[in-house]
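Archive entry: two folds, one per protein. Generate the first.
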Amino acid sequence: MPFWPIMLSILLFFWDLFKIWGYTFFVSFTHGGTIWIIIPIWLSWFFAEFFQEKKGTSFGNAISNGVVPLWVGIDWMRQLTTILIETQAKLSMLVFSKYIISVLVISYGIIIIVGGIRGSEFVRYFGRIREVSYILAVFTPFVYEIIAPGYKYFLAIVIFFPLFYFLIELIDRLTPEPVILSKDKGTEEDIFKDLGSFNQQINQPTGRSSRFPPLR
């Protein structure tokens, strides 16, 4: 088989995956059942990404980030259970897979929270708001049954995650640092400086005050 037709087939396949991937982000804004959950997800991502985690995440931020998938995963399970009860449908393999994804997302949130409390270094890499937001954004339309699942859908999620990650990283590097980050950094330095001066004053020997005569 000639080389160029093969390359064209591969490019068309990846283009098809890319369209599915882009549609996954867009479709949640067109459905009344998901718009109220997808908007908070993206708003929390935007403000945390560019005003808190521009240079990485802290343990405190990671703990807050872990709460988001924990809560969303619980809401997914509530939604699935409500549909099963209202429709009196049997637990199919598709619905069971959605429960599995919900449990995994809840577990992910708990792991991030516990890791942040313990000060585990892995949360600096796996507990960033961009990873949390990506997972919730791509699986929300699947759980709410507004996108047809298939191998291309899951393949697109995996393949284009690095594109999402490094695109956000590029934006972080190209955009200027917000003023509030500099102010927060300066405030922290002043606090530690004042604490250091206070400790030095406490640890210095005071001696006897000349205002009071020695006891006889």
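Generate the second and append.
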Amino acid sequence: MRHGVVRTMETTGCTPAQLPYWSKTYSMADLVASPRDLRAIRINVLLNGHPIRAQLDSGSSATLLAKSVADFAGVHYVSTSTEVVGIGEHSLQTWVADVQSLKLGDESINNTQLRVAQLGKYQRAGRTGSRISVPVGTEPAMLLGMDFLRAHRIIIDNATRKMVFTYEGGPVFQISKPAEYNEASSDTAGALSAGN
């Protein structure tokens, strides 16, 4: 996304360590197969030491953390609520919160800020004509949006169920409103460290 290109590759015969051809250092996380949809790209994340499930979401301009999870993890709110809108007719209340640590695979982002929202507030079960049961409670607790994708170079390897990625610079998480993002591109990048 950072370079304006999405590529598909055949990774037959490659180990995950051979995938990041652009860098000798990289981070890696295991993909979690969603019970609802195996095509969703989900990974486990540690937020202030608490395990949560995150989903890559290129449809979200900013990374969003579910408010119920933020409250459980004990984040400190630093802003009053503001509304954001996306696709659809509803708006969501959001807050900015301080996060001590966020660990994705072997990449650590320390002392950063995230936008918190009431994810799932308008979600309703609808008839689809299918008899396939959908497990309850499988929604991700965090959406890793375009801000995260722009700050990283990422390969999703479905064969080995790995996400291989490197931080390439810039803010990892956008905390300004989308309209303000271009003017405040350095809101917060956090302190990054990679393990490999």
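Annotation attached to the second fold: Residues 131-136, 179-196 have pLDDT under 50 and may be disordered. The chain has one domain: 27-120+136-194.
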